[in-house]
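Regression check, pyridoxal-5'-phosphate case 384:
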Amino acid sequence: MPAFNLRITRALAQRAEQGLTRTLLPHQGIAQGALHHHGQSFVHFSGNDYLGLANSAELVQAWQQGLGRWGAGSSASPLVTGFSDVHQRLIRELCDWLGYEDGVLFNSGFSANQATLFTLLEATDTLLQDKLNHASLMEAGMLGKAKMKRFKHNDTQHLTQLLTDDIANPFVVTEGVFSMDGDKAPLMDIATACQNRAWWMVDDAHGVGVHGPDGAGSCALAGVKPDILVVTFGKAFGLSGAVVLTRREVADYLTQFARHHVYSTAMPPAQAHALLHATHMIQTQQWRRDKLNELQHVYHDVFHFLPGYVATDTPIKPFIVGESERALRLARCLKERGYWLTAIRPPTVAQGKARLRITLTADHNPEQIIALAQELTRLFEEGI
Ligand SMILES: Cc1ncc(COP(=O)(O)O)c(C=O)c1O
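Current build output:
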């Protein structure tokens, strides 16, 4: 089909011309804050495994136990025979912990977000999203039937203004912690703006596990309870998948009508077993959050005077370098010196805001952060 060939060739060439081509780099394993690639070991500053659970012996063992008990796969979608007792226990545990009546499991945060917005919103509704919400939310808004408006990032005044306009059935969505900027949403103010006016939803992919009492997340920290809370398992839980927590009737509605739920093979029960264990680890192993906090102080101490530093009180540390080429060059030079960082470029972030996205995990130690700051300082001195 020449039309397809031409389109694909053109798009790839355009990406390459813009210096925006992305490449899959297969590594040979990640453990204890190190990534192994082509026989070399790198200090790994680009994952989202904030609490260091993904490679913890305890969680690996829990998954192995789950495999022994439940086998490898779920074998069917949830409404057929893919939903087991351990899936149910996982939902119950998450509800009891985070204060919701019921929940629906998905295989990824991406599908949880899309399913929720596609299913709940109709053409007569208005979706109001923070401008910097994750691609899964933005895309759902663009493809969905509801009218979408974006409010300025973390700007509750703008949100309030949009809510006072004559709009139908407003539904507000924000992240708890923004994935590329590492800043937190003003959840209390958003809750106030939405009170008696709109349903609201928080995607706390980067907050649950890390913030709040016992890691209960950004909403618990802010003392608010959105109508819908999305928790993803690919970050602090060290695994993958997601849950949408809400009222029983809404969960039932999603169970019946969310196509990503109805028509997709359920997550393996062994994974649900491991997730149940990760949920306990998050609540009981406060030392992981304490260590992360200490590392954040170290990061501030050694990075705050470097140009490009952005203060955040989350483990996501954007380091703004401006142009895409420079971000790539810096990431490449750091790689040569044994540090694995990701250069984040447009279209993921705005033009001129390319950055190194440095993430801290409980697997790091202070010396690694200090050494990274020293390397970056040297590179700046060399004019890179
Ligand atoms: C805020 C946010 N929501 C949703 C997702 C998607 O989650 P998943 O990776 O489980 O698909 C991500 C992933 O990066 C994210 O950062």
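Comparison notes: Residues 108-110, 113, 134, 136, 175, 179, 203, 205, 232, 234, 240, 242 surround pyridoxal-5'-phosphate (CB under 6 Å). DSSP finds 15 helices and 14 strands in the chain. No diff flagged against the previous build.
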